[in-house]
Amino acid sequence: MKRLPGIDWDTGGNVMIEGKKVNRIMINGQDFIAGDVKTALRNLPADIIDKVQVIDDYGDKARLTE
Hints:
alpha+beta; 2 helices; two-stranded antiparallel sheet; three-stranded antiparallel β-sheet; single chain
């Protein structure tokens, strides 16, 4: 993750993408260790990652409107 452009780590070890803090990691649409991004990234082997997609989630209400 550290090699990807646009992804930064702050001094507290939080992951920042385009200046916004990452709040959750999902794998195949399912939460992966919900709420603890640092632990999720430590426990995710790099060799299983094929693609990385960043989604700005605006919440449940935004998903209902198209």
